[in-house]
Amino acid sequence: MWQPNRAQWPIIWTIAVLLVVAWPPDKGQSLLLKAIHWAVDPADTLPPLPPVLPIGLDDDGEAVTAHDEQEREYYRVRNSSRLAGWRMDMKVARDPWDTATERQLLVGLAVLAGLAVWRLNAA
Asked: Which pick of 26, 33, 75, 95 has the fewest CB atoms within 10 Å?
């Protein structure tokens, strides 16, 4: 029975782990993005950017004041340091490609890795 040699194992493990953590589910985000979101804000303390104020609430002074306060807090934290701004960007990061494209790229990477392992076996 074939067994991978020392040069093949790192390729096999790296590609296997990458496929598991980067494979996008049908709905939601990949494990890699979920881990990044948790790593940059484990206690969920970074304030989110509030959504745009709906048209019907622009006459409501209290709603506008509350919205402006949330926005002020968001930008205060964001501008406090480059690291805080980067963390806030990473907290809302999304997969760079749509699900089908990402899966095609990951399968292509796995095929290329398989060819590399096969080539190392011949050497």
From this structure: 26
